[in-house]
Amino acid sequence: MHTVAKTLSANDTSETNAHQAGILVPKDPSILSFFPQLSKEDKNPRSHIIFEDQDGSKWEFAFIYYNNKFFGGTRNEYRLTRMTKYIRTSQLSSGDDVIFTKVNEKYQVNYERKNSVVNKAGVLKLGSNWKVIQI
């Protein structure tokens, strides 16, 4: 079993109304090893992954390596996209954790709600932490 989790930021959940292409995935090998390996020889390679949630619903997310920096562009980053419907359906907000698990090449997604992400001064705390969970 391999599990990683992401604490959602306001940007991840569209609370900032800013446009972005999915959730940024760090280039940390322990995080990237969770996802299918993508070819660095192809421009913007991607893999569509079917995740099953705790209710048995299936969600198709896309893991993309935006590598156009090596093809005359500017981007060099990994993203997990096509998550908006899952985030909205689950009513997730900034501060909540999305938990991704892989068991025998089957992917699962779950979430854990956190306490309020607004501190006493009324300032929204942004979180973009990924973590590997040892089980």
Topology:
Elements: E1 2-7, E2 23-25, H1 29-32, E3 46-52, E4 58-66, E5 77-81, H2 84-89, E6 97-103, E7 106-112, E8 130-133
Description:
The chain is mostly beta strands and 135 residues long. It has one domain: At1g16640 B3 domain (Beta Barrel), CATH 2.40.330.10. Helices cover 7% and strands 36% of the residues. The chain contains two helices and eight strands, in the order ββαβββαβββ. Strands 2-5-4-3-7-6-1-8 form an eight-stranded mixed β-sheet. β3 and β4 form a beta hairpin. It is globular, with a radius of gyration of 15 Å. It starts with a strand and ends with a strand. 21% of the residues are buried. About 4% of the residues have low confidence.
End-to-end C-alpha gap: 8 Å
CATH class division: Mainly Beta
Low-confidence stretches: 116-121
Which strand-content bin applies to the residues?
A: 35-45%
The proportion of residues forming helix, as a percent range, comes to under 10%
Strand order of the largest sheet: 2-5-4-3-7-6-1-8
**Secondary-structure arrangement, i.e. CATH architecture:** Beta Barrel
Q: Which key phrases capture this entry?
A:
single chain; 135 residues; mainly beta; At1g16640 B3 domain; eight-stranded mixed β-sheet; 8 strands; 36% strand
What's the short story on this structure?
This protein has 135 residues and is mostly beta strands.
